[in-house]
Amino acid sequence: MKRLRIGTRASALALWQANYIGGALKRLNGVESELVRIRTSGDRLQSAPVAQINEQIGSEAGAKGVFIKEIEEALLAEEIDLAVHSMKDVPTETPPGLAFAAVTHREDPRDCLISRNGHTLETLPNGGRVGTSSIRRQAQLWHRRTDLDVVDLRGNVDTRMRKLAGGEFDAIVLAIAGVNRLGLTHKVTQILEEDIMLPAVGQGALGIEVRQSDRETSGLVAVLDDAESRACITAERAVLHALQGGCQIPLGALGALRGSELHLQAAVFSAAGSDYVRCSESGPPEQAQAIGLRLAAALIEAGADKLLRLAGRSVGQP
């Protein structure tokens, strides 16, 4: 059995995730692996917002995802055997020749607030400075608190925590799954429930990408696929794809299995958070793609296309 080369970003969180997958493959299949650290466009250009990086590296490269482009190129060049991605960073279109052999069991998909002085979102002082790199989070924060000073904050979790501790921010917003994986759960001030902040599409799950032609690796990885998580994330990604969006649009979505049905909700916000449309759909999990497309159509009917056009995004019919 070959030794698998796992492509990953070099941040502490990315390395934790890749080591987690490597350990699971060893435990379940007895396969050895090694990590191959790859620096992506998103890692190199940390001084600019993600939306601007797409322009700096070109529209074609940007469409592939600033945090996974170089990793996918290494996979296609057979320099690695598989790649581990946070599904929230993965564009809705996969390059020809690649496929996701597994979507892992989803951890907590919610966001959380970490503040310096124990303040919650409701008790932050007027004009409180909150750091986040996400337009989705920014819009939902302003929807709740128009007085907040929401500032772009890039960098890995350690960098963001250091800036918070240094007094540059009163609070920051992070995905709780990443916080938990790094052993920082005790730092969380408030979990932001879905009625306050809908998470990013795919947040909390890991995707394992392989070459379609590499059946051996696909077979080894398939044991890590979680059918429930894949169905929920398939539905969420269908909404995002139909709205022609990337990670930098003010869209939150969350799918969950309740009994035998998949329930999906999503909301699109104006850039300032003042206006929004929110809809939901449900159905059998095996119809995840169709559920997502129906929800996208409902959002457009309710006016999501107008909100996205105002935010500078083009929207097509699903």
Q: Percentage of helical residues?
A: 25-40%
CATH fold label of the largest domain: D-Maltodextrin-Binding Protein, domain 2
Mean pLDDT: 90
Based on DSSP secondary structure assignment, what is the total number of beta strands?
A: 13
Structural class, from helix and strand content? alpha/beta
Q: What composes the largest sheet?
A: 5 strands, mixed
Q: Spell the H/E element sequence.
A: EHEHHHHEEEEHEHEHEEHHEEEHH
List the domain count as a whole number. Answer: 3
Number of separate helices: 12
Strands ordered across the widest β-sheet? 2-1-3-10-4
3D structure, described in words:
Helix content is 35%, strand content 22%. It folds into 3 domains: 4-106 and 205-225, D-Maltodextrin-Binding Protein, domain 2, CATH 3.40.190; 111-192, Periplasmic binding protein-like II (D-Maltodextrin-Binding Protein, domain 2, 3-Layer(aba) Sandwich); 240-310, Porphobilinogen deaminase, C-terminal domain (Double Stranded RNA Binding Domain), CATH 3.30.160. It is globular and about 60 Å long. With 318 residues, it is α/β, with parallel strands linked by helices. The chain contains 12 helices and 13 strands. Helix 10 (227-242) runs parallel beside helix 11 (288-301). Residues 52-64 and 314-318 have low confidence and may be disordered.
List keywords for this structure.
318 residues, alpha/beta, D-Maltodextrin-Binding Protein, domain 2, Double Stranded RNA Binding Domain, 5-stranded mixed beta sheet, 12 helices
